[in-house]
Structure formats: C-alpha cells, structure tokens
C-alpha cells in the first residue's frame, strides 16, 4: 500500500544531479556556493540551467560578471562542500576558510577548484527566467577533468543534510547519446 508523501520531500525524489560548487569572482574576490538545482539543457554547445536564489551573494556576483565555474566535487571533500553552504561569501573568504585551492581559469575570471574532479568554465547565455524563477542558463566554454580519477564518486543532496554517494556504474545498450 502506498502512502502520501509530504510535498516538502518531493525534491529528494527528483534530485537532478550531483552537488556542484559554483565559483565566482568579482573585483578580485573569489567566492564559492554549493548548488544542487541544475540540469543539462543542450549537448553542443553544452548548456546548463541553474537555480541560484536572488538572496544569495553569488547571484549578484554572477549576474554582474556574467561568468562562473561550475565545479564537480567528489565524496572526499563532501564536508568542505557542505561547509561552503553554511556561511556566506559576504562574511567569509570561503577558499581560505574552508581549505580549497583556487586555480586560474583560461576563459573566465572565476577560479577553478583544484580539489574538484571536474571544472566547467561558463559564460551566462540566458537570464530571461532569472527574475521569475531564478534560473540562469550557462554555456560551457571550456571543460577540465582530473584524468587520474577513473570512477569519481559524486555526492547528491536528498534534503535536510542527507546525501547519496554515486556508486556502481551500469551500462545498458541504448540508442540515446
């Protein structure tokens, strides 16, 4: 028999992908923000839609600079990722306070994050839905991965401090990309 699920828990059922870190920089001051609400919009060029609340310090920064880095962390730095969300860049220099390493990007002013498995340098493609839904669409300009990590175990936010770690990979024949 099925039971009713509270609407506040639906998010945990449809969690869209791994928790990422959004790196930004304005006036030479780098910042980080964890984000779980994102999705691929197109393959080539890669477009990524992200929800960033207009109440977040990062929102003003990325809207002003029109660029960011979307970095994909793994379980090894999960506590640091959560720590990024427990403070504001208005008050804390997150890279140094949390112990993450900024690395110069090649196409944007926001830094890559050395400890992350992948880093995507992005430019703002579309902000028409930002005011109503806080959705920003980013075009990936350059993508970096750490080739030494063969099976990265990403973290997935289920809500209220619960995370799932990506595990075993399976392959099923498909005609889809």
Task: Please give a quick description of this structure.
This protein has 177 residues and is α+β, with helices and mostly antiparallel strands. Helices cover 18% and strands 36% of the residues. It has a seven-stranded antiparallel β-sheet with strand order 2-1-5-8-9-4-3. A two-stranded antiparallel ribbon has the order 6-7. Strands 10-11 form a two-stranded antiparallel ribbon.
How would you describe what is shown here?
- The protein has 177 residues and is an alpha+beta fold.
- Helix content is 18%, strand content 36%.
- The protein is built from 5 helices and 11 strands; from the N terminus they run αββββαβααβββαβββ.
- It has helices spanning 10-14, 57-65, 78-85, 94-98, 130-133, and strands at 20-26, 29-35, 38-42, 47-51, 67-72, 102-103, 112-113, 118-126, 135-145, 155-159, 162-165.
- The strands form 3 sheets. A 7-stranded antiparallel β-sheet has the order 2-1-5-8-9-4-3.
- A hairpin with a 4-residue loop joins β3 and β4.
- The model has no long low-confidence stretch (mean pLDDT 93).
Please render the helix and strand layout as text.
Blueprint: H1 10-14, E1 20-26, E2 29-35, E3 38-42, E4 47-51, H2 57-65, E5 67-72, H3 78-85, H4 94-98, E6 102-103, E7 112-113, E8 118-126, H5 130-133, E9 135-145, E10 155-159, E11 162-165
Antiparallel strand pairs: 1-2, 1-5, 3-4, 4-9, 5-8, 6-7, 8-9, 10-11
């Amino acid at each position: 028999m099925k039971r009713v699920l509270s609407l506040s828990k639906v998010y945990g059922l449809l969690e869209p992908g791994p928790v990422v870190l959004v790196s930004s920089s304005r006036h030479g001051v780098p910042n980080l923000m964890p984000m779980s609400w994102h999705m691929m919009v197109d393959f080539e060029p890669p477009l990524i839609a992200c929800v960033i609340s207009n109440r977040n310090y990062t929102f003003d920064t990325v809207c002003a600079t029109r660029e960011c880095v979307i970095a994909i962390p793994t379980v090894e730095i999960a506590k640091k990722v959560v720590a990024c969300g427990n403070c504001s860049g208005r008050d804390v220099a997150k890279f140094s306070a949390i112990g993450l390493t900024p690395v110069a990007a090649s196409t944007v002013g926001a830094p890559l994050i050395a400890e992350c498995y992948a880093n995507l340098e992005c430019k703002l493609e579309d902000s028409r839905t930002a005011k109503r839904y806080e959705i920003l669409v980013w075009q990936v300009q350059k993508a970096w991965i750490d080739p030494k990590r063969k099976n990265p175990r990403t973290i997935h936010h289920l809500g209220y401090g619960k995370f799932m770690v990506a595990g075993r990979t399976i392959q099923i024949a498909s005609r889809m990309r």
